[in-house]
Amino acid sequence: MSFSNNVKASLDIAFKDLLYFWRMKMLFIAFLTFPVILMFLFGFMFPTVGTSNVYSGKISSPYSSVPIGIVVEDGGELAYNIADQFKQLSASTGLLKVKDFSSFEAAREKIVSGELKGVIVIPNGFTKALKSNTQAVIIVTMDDTSPQLSSAVYSEISMLFKMISSGISTSFLISINEQVKASFISEPISIERRNLIAGTTSSFEFLAPGFMALNIIMGTLSGLAAAIAREKEQGTLDGILVAPISSYAIITGKVLAQTVRGMIQAFMVLGISIAFFGVKVYGSFLLMTLIMLLGVSSFIGIGIIATTMAPEQETAMTLIMLLQIPSMFICNILFPIEQLPKWLQVIGKIMPLYYTADGLRKVIVLNASFNQISFDIIVLLLYSIITLSISIPLFRKALTR
């Protein structure tokens, strides 16, 4: 059979698979809906958070109007003054919703019942300590049943009190000597954070490329497993086998169909990220497309191997899920890979999803050039060659069983 006839046969098979996919309306709608749900779910789960600068009074947080109680045990004027300043800052920044309580026990009951997320206590002796030029202490108790929220809100409370404390220091130093540079003495070193790429203010910009890669792997692997296993179970593969076309043309057709599906989902994710979550593409569009194509081809090889090893569709889908679910957590998509133990980091870096997400992240967010992501490209290219080289003979063997 000539090369041109093989190409035509591959395109016909790809078209047949995509047409079959189009005719399965329920599956097609679910295919289009899945990335939409996933992106909105993760987009709101990891909201846009700008940068903070406590020295300029700019505080950004994913949480707002968090209910907090405050108890002023000290009867001194300074204690009430600090409490009032804290409440005003909380309201002006929109971070906390502060409510007064007469005692810690009363506030604690509200934490237990879930009405408060923390309590601030200004203890006895607070005013006396400040008037005697001694460091005063404020006690903060958080609702630790939600560690992530507790940690974030505690940081917000600390920053607000740092702003108040800085004001007290400045006033004190000016009262000693009006000529003194109070800001220098109270805070000789200040920190200002600058973004790596000008204009990148959204943390979701760093997460979106990972979700694009995740959609590619989930869509491609699931679609491939279903397409091959379905043909095997329905017996339609026998009809293709008796046709005067090579097995390579069959495989190429299947791969083409899944590549089209994977790319559609990836671009849907990118479109949603740009339209609703402020994500910008700073790098080359062609380079981004190349990474996605290599990612799809890497996953297809793995998908064919898993599918041809499975005797029926259910087993194939289970094997695919076994690849998909752990990849979400160990390939630097949802969580930093650095927080995993070393041996699990090694496993995560073996997966092609890690390099697809890394390459996309560098191109989309950091405007990386071809040379700067050449390692990711080489790994994905090797992955594609090796897995397809293994999978094609396996697939041909499965066809002739």
Q: How would you briefly describe this protein structure?
A:
The chain is mainly α and about 400 residues long. It is built from 15 helices and 4 strands. Strands 2-1-3-4 form a 4-stranded mixed sheet, sandwiched between helices.
Protein described:
With 401 residues, this protein is mainly alpha-helical. Helix content is 67%, strand content 5%. It has helices at residues 3-23, 25-45, 77-93, 104-112, 126-131, 147-176, 182-186, 204-234, 236-242, 247-277, 285-309, 313-330, 342-350, 352-364, 374-399, and strands at 66-72, 96-101, 118-122, 139-142. Helix 8 crosses helix 14 (352-364) and helix 14 (352-364) packs across helix 15 (374-399). The protein is elongated, with a radius of gyration of 29 Å. The chain starts with a helix and ends with a helix.
Key attributes of the depicted protein:
401 residues; mainly alpha; 15 helices; 4 strands; elongated
Mean pLDDT across all amino acids? 79
Shape: elongated
Approximate strand percentage: 5-15%
The level of helicity is: 55-70%
Task: Report the count of strand segments.
Answer: 4
Helix vs. strand class: mainly alpha
Low-confidence stretches at least 5 residues in length (pLDDT < 50)? none
Described by strand count, sense and barrel closure, the largest sheet is: 4 strands, mixed
